[in-house]
Amino acid sequence: MRDSSQGRKRHDARNLQWSWRSFAAFAYVAEQYGYRYEGLSPVSPRSSPNPYFTFRRLPDAADRAARTAQQHPTAPQGGRLPGMRHGGNRLRPLPEVRREVDLLRARITVDYARTHGRRGLTALLIMLPAMLIPLSQSGFAPGPLLVCAAVWLFFAALWLTGLRIARRRYARCRRLLNGGDGRAIRRDQ
After folding, report:
1. Residue 54's CB: how many other CB atoms inside 10 A?
2. Among 34, 103, 117, 160, which one has the highest count of C-beta atoms within 10 angstroms of its own C-beta?
3. Which residues contact 74 (CB under 8 A, 6 or more apart)?
4. Residue 163, H or E segment
5. Could you tell me where the beta strands, DSSP code E, fall in 50-124?
6. pTM score
7. Running DSSP on this structure, what letter comes out for residue 97?
8. DSSP symbol at 77
9. Does the pLDDT of residue 151 top 80, yes or no?
10. Distance from C-alpha of 155 to C-alpha of 68, rounded to nearest angstrom
11. pLDDT tens digit string along 169-181?
12. Of 99, 119, 94, 108, nearest in space to 19 by CA
């Protein structure tokens, strides 16, 4: 709302709530005030676990913000947000906007999936030389060597499980963005 009143062309935001559903609801509300979700922000550090996302000002942002402010005058003071339920968690979508919020969540999930492709693999590779430190103290005895190998294999299995879950989620979101029946959903919706 502040960026809209100042006429800023771009707003960068992080998902500090760790809920992609709430962040998608935030993106929906931002659109009501004239800022459309655009994807990953160029200001994000590469492979960041918590990247920034960009929202671009729409040409009719002033009209949207004025219309939304008129319909929801108490929103800045903690009142009901456009398209969201009243009370409790302010970012719970109403049934009539849930499809739009779900599409935004799918786009955000697909964009976020691009940020963490090699992060886990890099951690596993760094873990190997890091394990040499305790092994060098024990003289590379078979017992500590087996313990280090078991720890590394545990984290490798954990990473592979997470990768499998992330790929399924990514595929489900891609299907949702493609309309589930082959119809592509336009990015500007």
Report:
1. 19
2. 34
3. 80
4. helix 142-177
5. 52-57
6. 0.74
7. G
8. G
9. yes
10. 48
11. 888 888 888 876 4
12. 108
Nearest to 132 by CA among 149, 119, 120: 149
Token pair 């697909």: residue: 110
Helices 20-32 and 61-71: angle between axes, nearest 10 degrees: 100
Q: Which residues pair with 54 in a beta bridge?
A: 12, 39
State which H helix or E strand residue 70 sits in: helix 61-71
Question: Token digits for 111?
Answer: 């964009």
Cα–Cα distance for residue pair 91/61, rounded to 1 Å: 21
Contacts of residue 13, defined as CB under 8 A and 6 or more positions apart, other chains included, come to 26, 30, 52, 53, 55
Contacts of 39 (CB under 8 A, 6+ apart): 53, 54, 107, 111
**Rounded distance between C-alpha atoms, residue 114 and residue 5, angstroms:** 32
Residue 185: its pLDDT value, please? 45
- Structure tokens, 54: 């960009």
Burial tier of 24 (Cβ tally within 10 Å: 0-12, 13-18, 19+):
buried
